[in-house]
Amino acid sequence: MAVDMEMKVLIVDDYKTMLRIIENLLKQLGFKNIAQATDGSMALKMMHDGGGYGLVISDWNMEPMTGLQLLKEVRTDAKLRGTPFIMVTAESKVENVAAAKEAGVNNYIVKPFNAETLKTKISAVLGAF
Amino acid sequence: MTDADNLNKIETALHEKIHLANETSKQPLSSEEVSDIVREVVSSLTGDVTAADLKFYAELQDLASYIRHAKQEIADIKPKDISESHIPRATDELDAVVGATEDATNKIMDICDTISGIAESCTPEVSQQLIDCTTHIFEACNFQDITGQRITKVVQTLKHIDVKVEALLAALGEEIKREGGDGELQAPLDEKDLLNGPQLPDKAIDQDEIDRLLSDM
Lengths: 129, 217
Known about the structure:
The structure holds 2 protein chains of 2 kinds. Chain A is an alpha/beta fold. Chain A has helices at residues 16-29, 40-48, 67-75, 94-103, 115-126; strands at 8-12, 33-37, 53-58, 85-89, 107-110. Chain A is 42% helix and 19% strand. Chain A has a 5-stranded parallel sheet with strand order 2-1-3-4-5, sandwiched between helices. In chain A, helix 2 (40-48) packs parallel to helix 3 (67-75). Chain A is globular, with a radius of gyration of 13 Å. The relative contact order of chain A is 0.19. Chain B is an all-alpha fold. In chain B, 78% of the residues lie in helices and 0% in strands. In chain B, helix 1 (3-25) crosses helix 2. The radius of gyration of chain B is 31 Å and the shape is elongated. Classes of the chains: A alpha/beta, B mainly alpha. The A-B interface holds A 13, 15-18, 20-21, 24-25, 28, 61, 90, 111-115 and B 102, 105-106, 109, 112-113, 131, 134-135, 138-139, 141-146, 148-149.
C-alpha cells in the first residue's frame, strides 16, 4: 500500500525549530497537508475538532500535556484510537520505549534523526512511499 | 545525685535555655550564643562537679568549636554570593545560549527555504542536488533541540542547588548571610578580570554604542 501524500499529518513539539525541521523533512518526502501543535493538549483539541489526521508525529517532553499522555488519550478515544502515532524524542531509555510501546505507539524515533530514518519509520507505519 | 542524674539535669537545663533563646531571637542561634548558654548552665550547677560533668562539658566545647569551624568554612565560600549572583548569572548565560542557537538555527533554515525556492528554477538535476543539501542542513539543525534540552537540564540542576544553598543559609542564620559579598564584581584588577566572554543580550552594547563610546573618550 502506497502512502497517501494528501493525508493530514499532525506534528507536535514544543520547540518551534523542531516543528519547522520536521515539517520541512515531511515536505521533502512529499507530504502536503501538515499541521502543528506545541503540546499534547493542543494536539488533542485539534484532533477532536474534526482534524481527520492520518498520522501524528509527536515529541514526548512537553507541557502541560506530554506526548505519552497524548498517546494514551488518543488510544482511549473511540474516534481517534486508530490514528497512527510516531514518537520523536530525545528520551532514549529502554523504559521510555517500553512505556510508549505499552501505550500503543506505532513507532519511535530518537533525536537527533535524519530524513531517511523519518522516511523509514513512516513507511513502516503507513506503507511504502 | 548520680552521674546520670547530673547529665539529665544538664541536658534539661540546656534544652530549656536553648529553646527559650531560640524563641526570643526568632532565628537560629550563633555558635557563640550556644557556647554562652552551655557555660551559663554548667556554672549554675550546684554541688560537686563530677568527672562525668567535666567530660560532658569538654565534649560540648569540642562540639561548639567544630560547629564554629564548619560555619566559618561555609562562610568562606560565600553562599550568599552563590545564591544571589553566581547561580542566577549561570542560568542567564545558559538561557542566552539557547536563545542564540535558536535564532541562528532559524536564520539557517530561512536560508534553506530561500535555496529551495531557487532550486525550483534550476534544472531537475541541480534542483535535486540543492534539495538534498538543504535536507541535510535541516537534519543537522536537530542539534538545537538536543542542546536546548540538555541545557534546560543543567539549569534545573542549578536551580536545585540554589534551593539547597538557600536552605543552608536559612539553617545557619544571619552570621553566614552577612559573610556574603555585595554580589557585584569588583573593579577590574588586571586583564584577566576583563575577560568575561560574551555579554547577555540585555547587558551587551552594540557596535553603534561602542563607536559612540570610543569617540567620546
